[in-house]
């Protein structure tokens, strides 16, 4: 298969992190409360054709047996690529042997020339012997060059053969994909017609615990901060979908096109680092941080609030430290236009900006909870603790 040379542009990386979650949130909200969906969606079918059509994912989606043909062709492509990679390695080794032989010939010719010049100056037995030895080495190097050229020619023919087979298989898969691009609407209609009957009863996932209920917050400040962290948490959650696409591209580029990337892994672990920081306030809002509550759960509501107020001191020490050091890291990276040490060279200041931003979101959520805890200490009926705010699922 042909090699890929795509490198993700920096502007596309940052635009993707900003725009993809907004588009995903819009599509999700638009789909809620709409008309009932068909069992098989044409849009999803085309999406699977574009992203995984070469292994027949769209055919699997419409439950077509022709998916086996795509999978078989793809499996053969992988096997052919293994042979093509070995052939390229053999070709590279043969080229190195030729270069080494040519280097020996070049050095041998210079040595023979020098020996002949010395012989003209001093016609001694030692000089004549040295000339004969240098000539013998030169003839040996020239003799080794011919079989090396034959090996190189054979390796080149083998590599071209496997490359031609891979291109033929890739062309066959492309033709099948073009055909399915036209036939997919009919396949979807037929599958929907077959699946209109109600499905048999199967296992149903139990109800998932609902999110934090903002309407039960006692103060406007609490509700506002809760809304902000809800948006931030949902926003960065959609970044996980980006990782699916990027690692999917990396696997295909590496194992199908023999073109591993130098940016996919770096882009994703930096993205997940920012996600971890920005989602901190959302996790606190959802009471999802790890906590030891063996004794805490047995206490009364007022005692729980008192413990929350006391332990909040350590929380704010941590958050303020994170905010101060994070701002220093961000400011220094921005001042010197710091980039990564890899070939990709992504800008570091937007990534390090997630440190103070995450600290601010976490601190605001902590302040909102502290206000509520103080209100509960004064009057247990003033509000409900965060561990009790969620409605029963």
In a nutshell, what does this entry contain?
With 393 residues, the chain is an all-alpha fold.
Description:
The chain is mostly helical. The chain has 2 domains: 41-194; 219-389, no CATH class. It is 73% helix and 0% strand. It contains 12 helices and no strands. The chain has helices spanning 10-31, 42-52, 57-61, 67-121, 125-194, 220-237, 239-255, 264-278, 280-285, 301-335, 349-378, 386-389. α1 (10-31) crosses α6 (220-237). The longest helix has 70 residues, at 125-194. It is flat, with a radius of gyration of 34 Å. The chain starts with 9 loop residues before the first helix and ends with a helix. The model has no long low-confidence stretch (mean pLDDT 84).
